[in-house]
Amino acid sequence: GFPLKNLQSPVNTTLRRFLHGSDAVPAFWNFSLLGGQGGWQSDGCRILHQDDNFTTV
After folding, report:
1. Residue 30 · residue 40 · CB < 8 Å
2. Residue 33 lies inside a defined structural domain of this protein
3. Distance between CA atoms of 8 and 56, rounded to whole angstroms?
4. What values do phi and psi take at 35, rounded to 5?
5. Residue 11 contacts residue 42 (beta carbons within 8 Å)
6. DSSP per-residue letters across 10-57
7. Rounded to an integer, what distance in angstroms lies between the CA atom of residue 46 and that of residue 53?
8. pLDDT for 14-27, tens place per residue?
9. Which pTM value belongs to this model?
């Protein structure tokens, strides 16, 4: 991947939900966390819409 910084517009992504019965968590992979190993981070992410089959973040 490559870094995306200082975007003027948000990036929206719609994902199909395969595992029902669990709550969706909006997050992205931050390659800089944990000394360069990377980890999930949710800052700036939010759920825009969700139904039984799809979630848009």
Report:
1. yes
2. yes
3. 19
4. 65, 30
5. no
6. PPP-EEE--STTS-----EEETTTGGGT-EEE-TT----EE-SSEEE-
7. 17
8. 999 888 778 889 99
9. 0.70
CA distance 6 to 24: 26
Q: Are 40 and 29 in contact (CB under 8 A)?
A: yes
**Domain hosting residue 44, numbered range:** 27-57
DSSP assignment letter at 4: -
d(CA 33, CA 14): 25
Asked if the structure places residue 8 within a domain, the reply is no
Q: How many domains does the chain have?
A: 1
Q: What percentage of residues in the chain have a pLDDT greater than 90?
A: 61
C-alpha span between 5 and 49 (Å, rounded) = 24
Please report whether residue 22 resides in a domain.
no
